[in-house]
Amino acid sequence: MTKHFNKLTSLVLGTTLVATVASAAGGGELEKVMKARGLTENDVIRAAKTYNPTGGRDEFIVFSSGGQSGQVIVYGVPSMRILKYIAVFTPEPWQGYGYDVDSLKILRQGNIRGREINWGDTHHPALSEKDGKYDGRWLAINDKANPRIAIIDLHDFETKQIVSNKVFKSAHGGAFFTPNSEYILDAAQYAAPFDNNYHPIEEYKESYRGGVTIWKFDDKIGKIIEKDSFTVEMPPYMQDLSDSGKGVSNGWGFTNSFNTEMYTGGIEVGMPPNEAGMSRNDTDFLHVYNWEKLAKLAKDKKNVKIINGHKVIPIEVAVKNDALFLIPEPKSPHGVDVSPDGEYITVCGKLDTHASVYKWSKIKELIKSKKYTGKDPYGIPILDMKSSLHGQVELGLGPLHNQYSPVDGEIYTSLYVDSQVVKWNYKTLKVLDKENVHYNIGHLCGMEGKTADPQGKYIIALNKLAIDRFQNVGPLHPQNHQLIDISGKTMDLLVDMPLPLGEPHQAVAIRAEKLHPHVRYKMGTNSKTGKEHVGKTLAGQERIERRNAKGKIDPKGKNVFIYSTFVRSHINPERITVNKGDNVTMYMTNLERAQDETHGFTVDNFNVHASLEPGETAEINFIADIEGVFPYYCTEFCSALHLEMMGYLMVKDP
Ligand code: CUK
Ligand code: CUA
């Protein structure tokens, strides 16, 4: 373990550190603590590299997928302190998400075929880009299980949009922004019919399809524009991870695939029902497609067919327009990662010990000269693997994903089976260093490590297993994110962080100074739309209105509207009396201007909850279908009179 740390340096450094601190502290305090806690000098140096004194800030902010929780986890680097869970695909009561009217609308945008879905399987968060660099404005993340993309506004870290994929039945290869956030690439995973009908598995080759959905993104308003989005149809290979070209390869997209055998377990009599059928071929296919050209094609009706109201560019159209090609790649690949300048494309195959580095200028030349080695069964031209490759390098067992540093040619790759991070050079194809991680690493996260401008300094290992690294909290363990210092010649593992919220497949890190979130809303804002809320209520405007079905004020109406305000330490009004069966809508405005003065609201027994940030107006709605007396109160401890911030809802049988 100490092989990565130059012993002599560490001893000298350590001794100096101990001596310095000891003299500053006026005698041996540090040594005493080290002895009591059993810390080595290396431990103390590593601790000092990650410690934030109280009130201190981190240099980078990480957005991690929350896996099966359907959420996003935010934490700081190097301190590895969790700052926030962002509610995305799953109701999150403490934020009011799914428990107030406006957030429920966002959640329900994610309905699939009219069905409510209350969770997600998030894999790949992506930050919006300008010139291939993060601009700190928007975050997108995919749901693999119920193929959807969510957009999070980094001005308030709230989910503002969910769109469901109209043709895919699962999607793994998203979200990946194009270099100026024009589009979001989102590749399918398990091939399935694009329509919603039953097609027997025997028709796999004819009726099942894969593809990449190219979502149009308006980066001014931070919204996916569904009518300008489209899908490029691909063969029923299982598409996997994608990356967008940048720099010299801008305008192109790259998507891996596995199961080019099109094995289904049923078609090929005699094949055992296991994954062996999916990895018989020596190679699978890297899909290379020109999204810029495809986007132009999609604008003309004659190039698309409409399936479930969504535009699909058929394979033939993409091929005829020289917009879709295949290159063989080592079998069962996982990550495909484009270098900062866009020239090198590194593919790692789970079942191959090598990383394969493709060179864009070579691929471009083959495309230009129409030098194909053949076509696949769907007529897509195949480019020669050897002629597209810059080279291959043996890294170890189970290479998965890659990240870059600012050092020319330097790349970091996760080795799933070997449980290691390997540092190597994709230009010289030389392995430089390996570091053990704990255990079975999936993705790894560099600081802006997949952009045109990687920041270096740290790599985070996103490990699948923690096993013995933390206090046992039962058979279901937390995940383990490990922070690695990459500023030296060799890597140095600094610290472990347990992550107790689903499997964090991928994470992205941005310089903290690029984020500019608001501390309060303009008074009366609906945080989900950014616009003024219809229920905005200022001090003195509090009232209760009874209206009829036409919306007219009517003492006999069944709809009760409460315009309320929240300010330390009163909810106004403090008494609300309604009739049993009334439809109750409550608008709540937090009048506070002070930073962090959030109030919460619930009425006992009605399954509603709102979190009201300063300036925010939120809305809850329920049928008062049970008679009784129901206390309501503020759920945030907001002042010394927090417990007094309450009132009564009286429901009487008229
Ligand atoms: S990931 Cu989604 S299977 Cu390697 Cu990008 Cu974990
Ligand atoms: Cu407001 Cu407690």
From TrEMBL:
Name one cellular component (GO) term: membrane
The signal peptide stretch is 1-24
Give the molecular function GO annotations.
copper ion binding; cytochrome-c oxidase activity; heme binding; nitrous-oxide reductase activity
Where is this chain's protein located in or outside the cell?
Periplasm
Name the Enzyme Commission number(s) assigned to this protein: 1.7.2.4
Class of the enzyme per the UniProt entry, highest EC level: oxidoreductase
Task: Provide the Cytochrome oxidase subunit II copper A binding domain boundaries.
Answer: 554-654
> In its UniProt entry, what is this protein called?
Nitrous-oxide reductase
Q: Which residues of the intact protein are shown? A: 1 to 654 of 875
